[in-house]
């Protein structure tokens, strides 16, 4: 007899549920990026030295990273709806606090809490996989992740545009209202699914603190003993590093004398580049048909080549802008390709470990992104757009090398035999 948590998901999950999950993921993860184009405005109003203002973005990322490791694994232990509602409640309160902040200390604490609460998105993604039938899992994950990618890509331009029509606090107030409303909608309308963690080893009789400690203690062995997770995390860290580097440096290029774009022009470019995220649902369907390895190879290769196209953008002009748009579209689409194929693969490893796998995967994913963002600013300062493209292209090239060395059938078999 199968327990509710182990039973296969019903194929009749309404399409609107997937759409709701996709929208929610995008809206939640956008909270991490709203402050980036508003740093100068926030610093001025909170008496924060501009030289230290960059730390507000860092703190939200630190909060998010800690949440991925400490809170997302709870999805294997706690019902997803309740966990998501609690995390979104935290994000709502933190957004309100940020909007009301009159000094740097309050805003920085709020930024950390916003990051912590925003990991709700990473509870919803494996929940979408759990709701889908196995044969449609890639499609479902692709649709939900398209929402998440749109949230990442659209947050900064939307924040810029909103700040030109009002005050920077408007962005945080609107997001707080959206988070609170979404939390209530998700709690009411998402189907109930019992947490899938196995009850073997006296787990059911242990206290909550003991169960949580065991959950965290299992993370390192899970990473060490899951070669598929290691490979997929390496690929995606490389791709998201390239993505973050590109989107850190591209606005600097567009604002330079070669293009002379203002804030609204840069925001419009980001909106155009976001179209690459439309690839996610298509990739999910192809992955369901068994094309995972080919998609991965294509994603890593084209991700590297996008920076070769990007080199043509350095002189400026119409042709340079076209090259930059093409590079952005290709890179964004290929990040979606590798992300969806990776998540589909690790989610197939079992219901009882899915949230922990996702927490580990996304932690390494965002570590790559953090490195890319840091190197993007460094490369621009020390060599301009040319160095940005060379450094950015290295990220997917290294990931492709890992793929070629360790994702061959013989290499996979040898790795499994040594564990």
From TrEMBL:
It comes from the Bacteria. Keywords: Membrane, Transmembrane, Transmembrane helix. InterPro entries: MFS (IPR011701), MFS_dom (IPR020846), MFS_trans_sf (IPR036259). PROSITE patterns: MFS. GO terms for molecular function: transmembrane transporter activity. Residues 15-411 form the Major facilitator superfamily (MFS) profile domain. The chain crosses the membrane at residues 12-34, 50-71, 83-100, 106-128, 140-159, 171-190, 233-254, 266-287, 294-313, 319-340, 360-379, 385-406. PANTHER family: MAJOR FACILITATOR SUPERFAMILY (MFS) PROFILE DOMAIN-CONTAINING PROTEIN (PTHR42910:SF1), TRANSPORTER SCO4007-RELATED (PTHR42910). This is Putative MFS family arabinose efflux permease. It comes from Azoarcus indigens.
């Amino acid at each position: 007899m199968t327990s509710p948590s182990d039973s296969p998901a019903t194929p009749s999950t309404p399409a609107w549920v997937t759409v709701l999950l996709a929208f929610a993921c995008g809206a939640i993860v956008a909270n991490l990026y709203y402050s980036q184009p508003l740093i100068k405005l926030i610093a001025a109003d909170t008496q924060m030295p501009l030289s230290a203002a960059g730390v507000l973005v860092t703190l939200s990322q630190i909060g998010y990273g800690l949440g991925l490791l400490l809170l997302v694994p709870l999805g294997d232990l706690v019902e997803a709806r309740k966990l998501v509602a609690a995390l979104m409640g935290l994000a709502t309160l933190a957004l309100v606090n940020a909007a009301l902040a009159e000094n740097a200390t309050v805003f920085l604490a709020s930024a950390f809490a916003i990051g912590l609460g925003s990991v709700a998105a990473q509870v919803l993604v494996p929940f979408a996989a759990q709701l889908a039938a196995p044969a449609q899992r890639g499609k479902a994950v692709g649709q939900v992740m398209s929402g998440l990618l749109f949230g990442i890509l659209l947050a900064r331009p939307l924040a810029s545009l909103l700040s030109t029509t009002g005050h920077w606090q408007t962005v945080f107030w609107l997001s707080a209202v959206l988070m609170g409303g979404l939390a209530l909608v998700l709690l009411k309308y998402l189907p109930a699914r019992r947490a899938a963690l196995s009850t073997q080893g006296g787990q059911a009789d242990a206290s909550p603190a003991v169960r949580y400690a065991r959950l965290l203690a299992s993370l390192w062995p899970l990473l060490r003993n899951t070669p598929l997770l290691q490979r997929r995390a390496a690929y995606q860290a490389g791709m998201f590093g390239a993505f973050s580097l590109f989107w850190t440096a591209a606005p600097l290029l567009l604002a330079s004398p070669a293009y002379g774009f203002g804030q609204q022009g840069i925001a419009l470019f980001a909106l155009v580049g976001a179209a690459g995220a439309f690839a996610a649902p298509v990739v999910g369907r192809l992955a369901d048909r068994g094309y995972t390895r080919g998609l991965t190879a294509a994603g890593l290769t084209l991700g590297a080549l996008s920076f070769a196209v990007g080199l043509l953008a350095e002189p400026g002009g119409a042709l340079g802008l076209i090259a930059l748009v093409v590079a952005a579209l290709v890179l964004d689409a290929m990040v979606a390709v590798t992300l969806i194929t990776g998540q589909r693969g690790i989610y197939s490893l079992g219901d009882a470990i899915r949230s922990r796998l996702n927490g580990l995967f996304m932690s390494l994913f965002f570590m790559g992104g953090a490195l890319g963002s840091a190197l993007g600013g460094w490369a621009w300062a020390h060599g301009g757009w040319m160095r940005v493209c060379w450094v950015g292209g290295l990220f997917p090239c290294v990931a492709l090398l890992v793929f070629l060395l360790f994702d061959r059938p013989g290499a996979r078999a040898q790795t499994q035999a040594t564990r």
